[in-house]
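Per reviewer request, we include the raw input and output of the structure prediction for the construct analysed in the revised manuscript.
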Amino acid sequence: MKKCFWIALLPLVFVAATYQSRFISQNWKFDSSAVEQQLSPISGAWEVITPEKLKQPVLSQKVKYADYPKVLMKDRDFYDFEATTKIYLSSESSDVQAGGLILRYRNLYSFYMLFLNTKDQRLTLTRASRGGMKVLKRVNQSFNPDRWYELKAICYLNHIRAFVDGQQILDVEDDVSTGGKVGLVTAGTSRVYFDDLQVKSETFEVTQ
């Protein structure tokens, strides 16, 4: 007796996931010592102070190092984002007057530094790797000490753009770029003051 086997084909139901974008804005105000709990110093010692010349609380590094004192903001990594800070480079240090943003920090051998330099009159983007520091682009422009600047970086995929007071100065493509933390940096004995730091980023959430 021949047996017949029937195979029932069940319809496959594909549930397509949808994604909804959401913009996140984080702001660190350097107006009290409480914000120091949100900092993760890599080098140097950082504190909120009120300089006599500014008469307002600001963040500054207080220990003089020969390298680049750096501090990261805790919490999260950012991939595509916009980071903005207000920076004041004082003429108190006649040797070095440079400071700025740390972008996409993953470890000591993978991050970017965006420097505003009022002593050498330039804006510089560098990349750290196991091979050392590499200057990706440097633009000479007139910058004066003892005044506030708004320094902004927009990182999208492998593209990094830098602005000073709303004017685009740098535009760099770098295939090594990836996600990471943001932070602040000064150079050598520079006396630099930061008013605040804001990061805006876009995330995507799965919705059904």
